[in-house]
């Protein structure tokens, strides 16, 4: 993201190839390449930097690090998929639940980015990429809706009956409006929490028999047993 924010990510993903040394743009490319190279070197541990210091091009450094440290990607992808599909709203507000999902989605997309068209001109793959993006967003929308509490059954059913489904941000807005109008503030409390509260309340009641739960020994005459 830091490279993208500075408009330099193209130097490490192959979008900007290494120009010929006699090309007029070589000097400008060389300056940017050295800048990106230094950013990467300064962002890794010294022991790692020593192993890549002899690589001159930023793209070579980036590729080396990616190949070296991407072996655990599939494990993390598996973990993220499990977290995403097991996440429920629970006691969270709709906004908190949606934010938690977005954090997981964004991390997963860093490992499995949605397809994009890199063709220099408009081509037939644009349609395929566009359809893939629509399906990608559709899966996210359904995941968000199915993770909501039962108190959102009505609005969830109404949205799922729409054809086509609205964009996910529109769906989020609709659910938020429903939450404000119809869902009580504490509707997300877990049933088990309620049971625990009731059991705790019962345990504090007097255990004796008789009206009002009074002790059965209360009211009996007392005798001195000392003498």
Structural account:
The chain is mostly helical and 227 residues long. It has 2 domains: 2-69, no CATH class; 73-182, no CATH class. It has 10 helices and no strands. It has helices spanning 2-5, 26-43, 46-52, 58-69, 73-86, 94-111, 125-146, 153-160, 168-182, 191-203. Helix 5 runs antiparallel to helix 6. This is Retrovirus-related pol polyprotein from transposon TNT 1-94.
Backbone structural class: mainly alpha
**How many DSSP E strands?**
0
| β-strand amount | under 5%
Report the helical percentage.
55-70%
Q: Describe the global form.
A: extended
CA(first)-CA(last) distance: 90 Å
What order do the helices and strands follow? HHHHHHHHHH
How many H/I helical runs?
10
Low-confidence stretches: 209-214
Summed over residues and divided by their number, the pLDDT gives a mean of 80
- Characterize the main sheet: none
Q: How many independent structural domains?
A: 2
User: What is the gyration radius calculated from CA atoms?
Assistant: 31 Å
How would you summarize the topology of this molecule?
Blueprint: H1 2-5, H2 26-43, H3 46-52, H4 58-69, H5 73-86, H6 94-111, H7 125-146, H8 153-160, H9 168-182, H10 191-203
Short synopsis of the structure:
Pfam families: Retrotrans_gag. With 227 residues, the protein is mainly alpha-helical. It has helices at 2-5, 26-43, 46-52, 58-69, 73-86, 94-111, 125-146, 153-160, 168-182, 191-203.
Jot down its keywords.
mainly alpha, Retrovirus-related pol polyprotein from transposon TNT 1-94, single chain, Retrotrans_gag_dom, extended, 227 residues
């Amino acid at each position: 993201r830091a490279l993208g924010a500075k408009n330099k990510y193209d130097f490490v993903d192959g979008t900007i190839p290494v120009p010929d040394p006699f090309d007029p743009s070589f000097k400008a490319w060389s300056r940017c390449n050295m800048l990106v190279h230094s950013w990467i070197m300064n962002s890794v541990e010294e022991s790692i930097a020593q192993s890549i210091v002899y690589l001159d091009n930023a793209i070579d450094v980036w590729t080396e690090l990616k190949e070296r440290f991407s072996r655990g990607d599939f494990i993390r992808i598996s973990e993220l998929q499990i977290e995403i599909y097991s996440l429920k709203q629970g006691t969270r507000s709709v906004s908190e639940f949606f934010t938690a999902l977005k954090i997981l989605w964004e991390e997963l997309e860093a490992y499995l980015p949605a397809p994009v068209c890199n063709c220099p001109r408009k081509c037939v793959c644009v349609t395929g990429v566009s359809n893939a993006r629509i399906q990608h967003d559709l899966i996210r929308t359904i995941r968000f809706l199915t993770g909501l509490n039962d108190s959102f059954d009505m609005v969830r059913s109404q949205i799922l009956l729409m054809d086509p489904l609205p964009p996910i941000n529109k769906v989020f807005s609709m659910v938020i409006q429903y939450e404000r109008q119809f869902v009580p503030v504490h509707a997300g409390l877990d049933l088990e929490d309620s049971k625990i509260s009731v059991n705790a309340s019962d345990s504090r009641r007097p255990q004796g028999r008789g009206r009002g739960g009074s002790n059965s020994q209360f009211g009996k005459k007392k005798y001195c047993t000392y003498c």
